[in-house]
TrEMBL record:
<dbReference type="InterPro" id="IPR001267">
    <property type="entry name" value="Thymidine_kinase"/>
</dbReference>
<dbReference type="GO" id="GO:0004797">
    <property type="term" value="F:thymidine kinase activity"/>
</dbReference>
<dbReference type="GO" id="GO:0005524">
    <property type="term" value="F:ATP binding"/>
</dbReference>
<keyword id="KW-0237">DNA synthesis</keyword>
<dbReference type="GO" id="GO:0046872">
    <property type="term" value="F:metal ion binding"/>
</dbReference>
<dbReference type="InterPro" id="IPR020633">
    <property type="entry name" value="Thymidine_kinase_CS"/>
</dbReference>
<feature type="binding site">
    <location>
        <position position="184"/>
    </location>
    <ligand>
        <name>substrate</name>
    </ligand>
</feature>
<comment type="similarity">
    <text>Belongs to the thymidine kinase family.</text>
</comment>
<comment type="pathway">
    <text>Purine metabolism.</text>
</comment>
<dbReference type="GO" id="GO:0042802">
    <property type="term" value="F:identical protein binding"/>
</dbReference>
<keyword id="KW-0862">Zinc</keyword>
<comment type="pathway">
    <text>Pyrimidine metabolism.</text>
</comment>
<keyword id="KW-0808">Transferase</keyword>
<dbReference type="GO" id="GO:0046104">
    <property type="term" value="P:thymidine metabolic process"/>
</dbReference>
<keyword id="KW-0479">Metal-binding</keyword>
<keyword id="KW-0547">Nucleotide-binding</keyword>
<dbReference type="Pfam" id="PF00265">
    <property type="entry name" value="TK"/>
</dbReference>
């Protein structure tokens, strides 16, 4: 082992991982920008990354729902970041913010490398669950790596109480469906359960009606024959 190896490692600032999660419209991006801006104000070098899939407000900026912007690197994956920014610029970085983290399949590997090996402070913001309240992407996978985890809440769009969940307003079934208030709304537990029951009843009624129509067709066909 090189005699300076241990010295360099012991004097390098240790990395950190901070995770911010919650439903849509909970202020996750706002909290992320606040943290990254605070780090920048102390003189630390910062960079922001977001998924290139998210083009709702801007392609090359992280934008909150109220319009606050912060320039970023839009990327399809995280492990390409070092190559994109260049090794020299990467080495000078202290803090890396990641918005819409649920869209990055390599989130866990990137955090391990950047925090554990490179000494970076990583601040992550993303959805912890999808519209079915199932784990979304790799966000929950990085919690065992985290120094801190912050769970934010929104306001239920139907009653104004604390909202923990994201409800989809449309009939699309795919997990990844990027949208805003036209597609999603934050809801409390009561209204999430109520809306899910209503949707299930509508589906059941639709299936029942289709079955009756099909049976009528069979009967009419048989009568004709």
């Amino acid at each position: 082992m090189h005699p300076l190896h241990g010295l360099n490692s012991s004097h390098r600032r240790p990395g950190e991982v901070h995770v911010i999660v919650g439903p849509m419209f909970a202020g996750k991006t706002t909290a992320l920008l606040r943290r990254v801006t605070a780090e920048s104000d102390t003189g630390r070098s910062v960079a922001m990354i977001k998924s290139s899939k998210d083009t709702r407000y801007a392609k090359d900026a992280v934008v909150t729902h109220d319009g606050t912007k912060f320039p970023c690197w839009p990327l399809p994956d995280l492990l390409s970041f070092k190559h994109k920014i260049g090794d020299e610029a990467y080495q000078k970085l202290d803090v890396i913010g990641i918005d819409e983290a649920q869209f990055f399949g390599d989130l866990y590997d990137f955090c391990c490398e950047a925090a554990d090996l490179d000494g970076k402070t990583i601040v992550i913001a993303g959805l912890d669950g999808d519209y079915l309240r199932r784990s979304f992407g790799s966000v929950l996978d990085v919690i065992p790596l985290a120094d801190t985890v912050t769970k934010l809440t929104a306001r239920c769009e139907l009653c104004g109480k604390r909202a923990f969940f994201t409800l989809r307003k449309t009939d699309e079934l795919q997990t990844e469906l990027i949208g805003g208030a036209d597609v999603y709304m934050p809801v409390c537990r009561l209204h999430y359960a109520n809306e899910q029951r209503s949707a299930a009843m509508e589906t059941a009624r639709g299936s029942f009606g289709a079955t009756i129509a099909q049976n009528d067709l069979v009967v009419k066909t048989a009568a004709t024959v």
